[in-house]
Design goal:
- The chain has 219 residues and is α/β, with parallel strands linked by helices.
- It has eight helices and six strands, in the order H-E-E-H-H-E-H-E-H-E-H-H-E-H.
- Helix content is 40%, strand content 15%.
- The two termini are 31 Å apart.
- The structure holds zinc ion.
Length: 219
């Protein structure tokens, strides 16, 4: 991996781990998400599932919602979504439909994950058949700051963390502790390029800062 990109990735993931610790102080589970381009953070969020009593309020979904309001879907293909835990099926679907170009996570989620359990992040079929809705599969990098992410969960609850490990709910992406890097398996289709052009020409552009958009953070 390019050294500069890896340095940026590590900084962004460190922020996710920090957010996961902040989440605990606010009575939430330790999840944190950042959406950024070249190290410049566009949106960040923690879960709101407990406080809102709403299972859909995952950190990734909240951050994607902020990012779409700020810059629109077309630009999100240049952005990376960082998150301390592999995105679940629901969040992975939102990642695909919002056209985010790259996903980086620390810990794998073999029971609930959108790439370990279900092939949502890397599914080519959905993009080739519905290019007006779904982007090509994003690049995926996993295992970044793995130990730091684990420690945040262990500090949240040592007992819960042992149970999570016993059940194999959150694991290392690979036994060697190396990064797992999955490049997009399909290039952007002609139909998808055409769709981007059509959206550029015919859809109203979202203002960079919508009046009701929150700041770059929803904690
Ligand atoms: Zn999720």
């Amino acid at each position: 991996m390019d050294p500069l990109r890896e340095k940026i990735d590590r900084a962004m993931m460190a922020r996710c781990v920090e957010l996961s610790r902040i989440a605990v102080t606010k009575g939430e589970y330790p999840f944190g998400t950042v959406i950024a381009r070249d190290g410049k953070i566009l949106a960040e969020a923690i879960n709101h599932t407990i406080r809102d009593g709403d299972v859909t309020r995952h950190a990734e979904v909240i951050a994607i919602s902020q990012a779409q309001k700020a810059i629109g879907r077309e630009q999100l293909r240049h952005y990376t979504l960082y998150t301390n835990i592999e995105p679940c099926a629901m969040c992975s679907y939102c990642i695909r439909e919002s056209w985010i170009g790259r996903v980086v996570f620390a810990l794998a989620s073999p029971v609930m994950g959108g790439t370990s359990k279900w092939n949502i992040l890397q599914d080519d079929d959905v993009a080739s058949r519905m290019p007006q809705i779904f982007a090509a599969a994003p690049e995926v990098v996993s295992g970044l700051l793995l130990h730091e992410a684990q420690q945040a969960w262990r500090d949240w609850s040592p007992i819960a963390w042992e149970m999570i490990k016993l059940r194999g709910l959150l694991t290392e992406p690979c036994p060697q502790g190396e990064h797992v890097h999955v490049r997009p398996s399909g290039r952007r289709s002609l139909m998808h390029r055409l769709q981007i052009l059509l959206e550029r020409n015919y859809q109203p552009r979202v203002q960079a800062q919508a009046p009701d958009a929150p700041e770059n953070s929803q904690l």
